[in-house]
Design goal:
- The protein is 37% helix and 16% strand.
- With 276 residues, the chain is α/β, with parallel strands linked by helices.
- It has one domain.
- The longest helix is centred in the last third of the chain and has 23 residues.
């Protein structure tokens, strides 16, 4: 049995972080739980349902509780942790080689990375990486063993979605970027367009994991863009899990160096880089 924990980690404590855990069931993968925040993930592990209509709170990650909750939900300990946040074997205080290589690879597909600094993700990134390292997980750098027990893998959903959805360029699904995607459109129009992309992602994730306990809202039931962020975070957590699966199966490629790497689906890496 293999268990993958996916975390779409917010860079501050004020914003929620999506969390999901998936595991093998025979030859298939199943989603054991998906949640829009650390606390709601722990809530599911306690046997409590998530009310997706209620406000979702941010918070700091508690690695021990997250691992215990994931193990309880999956029925086995976590093998691979896939996180969407900059991590490295050295302090992350500026743009890394992993960020530059990934941006060179995907920049013309509008999937360049954000630039980390000492404050962002700062202590959140440190808390996650040191927490998992203290539990025996190893950061999967570009020069680490591709496979092995207890791996901490950095992923980036934008390039992953190019593979999952077979798209040529960046998928327009980020709530905070909706006015940039569709300038001049009304809030209702942007909600409808975002939900259409959410559904495209949701459909492909269900092809991988089967059913999971998250129902996207209908267009008419959403009046505020901010209400969609919880679904974006949860979907990103599942995308992190999917890349973790590819990593475990030898189908992901590391972009980076000996201190850090962003792992992306191999089939969206250009062949000239794939062989380096």
């Amino acid at each position: 049995m293999t268990v993958v924990l996916g975390i779409d980690a917010a860079w501050t404590e004020t914003e929620p972080s999506g969390v999901a855990v998936v595991s093998t069931l025979g030859d298939a993968w199943v989603c054991n739980a998906v949640a829009p925040s650390y606390e709601t993930f722990l809530q599911v592990a306690r046997g409590e349902a998530i009310d997706w209509s209620m406000p979702i709170q941010g918070g700091a990650p508690d690695v021990d509780r997250l691992l215990a909750a994931a193990a309880s939900l999956a029925g086995a300990d976590v093998d691979v942790v896939a996180v969407d946040i900059p991590i490295a074997t050295i302090p992350v205080t500026t743009r890394r080689i992993a960020d530059r290589v990934t941006s060179r690879e995907f920049g013309d597909r509008q999937c360049s990375t954000h630039s980390p600094n000492a404050e962002r993700p700062g202590k959140i990134g440190v808390a996650l990486s040191t927490g998992f390292l203290s539990r025996g997980y190893r950061i999967a750098t570009a020069f680490a063993e591709a496979l092995g027990p207890l791996q901490l893998v950095e992923v980036y959903p934008h390039p992953a979605l190019l593979s999952l959805l077979n798209r040529p360029s960046r998928v327009a699904y980020k709530v905070s970027k909706s006015s940039r995607y569709w300038p001049g459109m009304t809030v209702d129009e942007r909600i409808a367009l975002l939900l259409a992309e959410f559904r495209s992602i949701d459909v492909e994730l269900r092809r991988v994991f089967g059913s999971f306990d998250m129902l996207l809202p209908s267009v008419g039931s959403v009046s505020r863009l901010s209400h969609l962020k919880r679904y974006e975070d949860a979907l990103d957590a599942l995308v992190c899990c999917w890349v973790g699966i590819l990593y475990a199966g030898g189908q992901a490629t590391a972009l980076g160096d000996e201190t850090a790497a962003i792992w992306c689906p191999t089939n969206v890496i250009r062949s000239d880089r794939r062989d380096r």
